[in-house]
Design a protein that fits this description.
globular; 13% strand; alpha/beta; Rossmann fold; single chain; 2 domains
Length: 409
Amino acid sequence: MGRGTHSLEQRGLTSEKLGREGDPQARYRAPAEDSDAIQCRRHRPEFAATSGQPVLPMTSALLLCPADNFGLLGSYGRAFRRLNVDVAYFHLSDAIQKHVKFDRIGRAIAKYLPFEPWVVGGNRDLIHQVMALKPDILLFAGAIPIRAGALAQIKAACPTVRVVLAWPDTMLNLSDNILACLPMCDLVASYSSTAIPLLERLGARAVEWFPFAVDEELFPGDTTLTAQEREALASDVVFIGNHREDREAAVSNLVNAGLSVKVWGAGWDRSPRDPVLVGKVHQSNLLIGRELVKAVRAAKVSLNAIDPTNFPAANMRFFEQYACGGVSLSSPCPEMEPEFPDGVCGSYYRSDDELVGKAKELVNNADLRGRLRSEGRRRALRAHTYVNRAEKMLKVLGLRPGAATSGHG
């Protein structure tokens, strides 16, 4: 969305939006395990059957990502499980890799330019998996190598399956194969409300607004810092995200104004404009989970420089900052500013001078930081969690947790 840090990027995962910056599949990778096990893994919630009452078949969802991944679909999977939805996972890229020829050379090529027969083979495996599981929901996200013909065959073989695309990115990244898939989707869940009429013009039959949200399992609220951790992580401003020139410029402005800044993220050591500056502020690659929470809480202010091509929508970091209990200083985000107003939940900057001025104001006013931190987190947890989003998705699709359609197998 971001949508982020999802990784001690010791795992090579990017954080912003499903690998929007860097490898498109990075946000879908889990720790190494057997690919067949990933494809077949299911998470079945435990139901306490009431004596004398029939147990309804569970609503089920098949997510096209590895089990327990750190990206958008992983957050939906965790939310669905909390709603007693039976969740299974299928990693399409791994399935395609199984059909790659020419050994190591072929696998290297397939990462960037897979041949059509390999893609068809992986999509055929997906069709077989859907026919075997007959899920109520088939959920995929981003520009993955899924074929419109595969979705059409799935609808022909399993007409009760609801096909859902969670679109998490600037429309610039809508690939031709995803555009072809839009009419096959029963729902396109757009991260941006502004994109809704445009996705409809591109062929989507039903589009709803599903902004990014808070993943309470990924960013636990009970995270604590030791005195040693707080001292090591302390800064006036923290930025967590991949390198871009505009982000380096923002960090440079803050440092030149006398503020201490710490940066975590990928790409900062690859051709920065100011290597000396980056060498001072860059800590390591992206963080995930409790480690990210600690870095945000140890800083006085958390900077969110949203990719301009996302305008006017929020990115993943927007919600992750609130989830971590941070004090957000964000570039403009018109779609979410009414819900998280300036000076009430966080702060927004619209120029270099305003960035520095507002950062200094927040750094020097502990009472203001406390109010913003408290209200921002309260609003995020009240109505902007992935459980909230998953509940809405089930409702839009005419499903409810614990009860499936008659076509469920």
